[in-house]
Amino acid sequence: MASIDKTNGKNDFSQGSVIKNILGLAIPMTLAQLINVLYNIVDRIYIGRIPKDATMALTGLGLCLPIISMVIAFANLFGMGGAPLCSIQRGKGNEKEAEAIMGNSFILMVGCGLTLTALGLIFKRPMLYLFGASSATISYADSYITIYLLGSTFVMIGLGMNSFINSQGFGKIGMLTVLLGAVTNIILDPIFIFVLHLGVQGAAWATILSQGLSALWILHFLTGDQAILKLQKRAFRLKRRRVLEIIALGLSGFTMSVTNSLVQIMYNASLGRFGGDLYIGIMTVINSVREVISLPINGLTNSAQPVMGYNYGAGQYGRVKRAIIFMSVVSIAYTTLMWGLVHSFPGFFIRVFNHEGDLVSAGIPAMQIYYFGFFMMSLQFAGQSVFVALGKSKNAVFFSIFRKVIIVIPLILVLPHLFDLGIRGIFMAEPISNFIGGAACFGTMLVTVWPELGERKEG
């Protein structure tokens, strides 16, 4: 756990073991993210077991993922942009500015959430058809996303503002925040889907009601006495310079989510053209498995950011380097292990979401191709995390765009037409991008950041 200064109650990441500081946040944060993913994962598990048209319903929900990713993108823009800045300002001892950053981020989230709800409801059907919806899947997709969009503001607050709880060192509170909503979702899902026979609409209602509960809990904590940085009205006044700094640093997480959305759109459109609705359903399962197995690595890299940012702001550069080494080694080891498990037992992971024979038999080779060399993705996560934590927004944004837009999307379009690869070529785009993008991101971090930290003297 981070050392706590008894005088002022601060979680001081410049004291004690760097590894313990990271793990003190990583363990509860990873559990929180695991629980958070359950919002959508549990929906897919239950929908995949609907007595009638389970695969079509699951595919319809998969078509909504690009829109959901866009909502998450804006939560990341303001949450992942503001939280590291708060850590840096806390490290400098400037808590007033840290609170102002949090207050500005909150107002941006609320305004953006309301705007996304309005625009999403207006353009939802054209977007779903653009994403690959067919006459067999459009009704399921439309039913789910209509209700989900009504809760966009809850999602923004629930995801974005929880970053400010974690950045203050309250990892357990952040975990409890998500646990509250997830448990509610797990309870409501079977009631709404099966007991009340609401199907995909029931899954959506369970999700937004649960997110709403999480949002209320977050606001209660951040306005209470326990928080170090408090959410106060005086911090709501937007300041141009501050907003631009938040957006500049948040562009990394934003572009990662936006490019994820673009990639999902390209995958669905190409898979629909070459393989039909079945392969869009397979891609939904693959994305679901990826969300789960990526959780520990996301939790580790995200929890290392406040520690690196705080020590960077405090001038403790040797501690920043130790954090980078620990995070990188653990990330590579974990993703190598998961690559082995997914490659060896793909059928097990698929059957968690769907038991239908065609989807399982076609999904096994697709999953093995998609996850090949998965350990290279950890280099992208680690390098990206360092750039964000140290406020190097331009590098973070570039590598977010580089792997997805410059590498993956062109490969999705080109590979199916080469050497009669077809469907296999579409799934090959991901591992190729992992090798190129991961090596480029991590290598650049070592060449640029590492020497800089070595040259500076600790304050």
Put the structure in a nutshell.
With 459 residues, this protein is mostly helical.
Number of strands: 2
Ends distance: 23 Å
Quaternary structure state of the chains depicted: single chain
> Main β-sheet, in a few words?
2 strands, antiparallel
The percent range for strand residues is: under 5%
State mean pLDDT (0 to 100 scale): 82
Total of DSSP H or I helical runs spanning 4+ residues: 18
Low-confidence stretches: 1-9
Derived structural class: mainly alpha
Rg, alpha carbons: 21 Å
Q: Helicity level, as a percent range?
A: over 70%
Overall domain count: 1
Approximate shape: globular
Would you give an account of this structure?
The protein has 459 residues and is an all-alpha fold. The protein has one domain. 80% of the residues lie in helices and 1% in strands. The protein has helices spanning 18-47, 54-63, 65-91, 95-130, 138-150, 152-160, 162-167, 171-195, 199-222, 240-275, 277-293, 295-313, 317-344, 346-351, 357-370, 376-389, 393-414, 423-455; strands spanning 3-4, 11-12. Strands 1-2 form a two-stranded antiparallel sheet. The longest helix is centred in the N-terminal third of the chain and has 36 residues, at 95-130. The protein starts with a strand and ends with a helix.
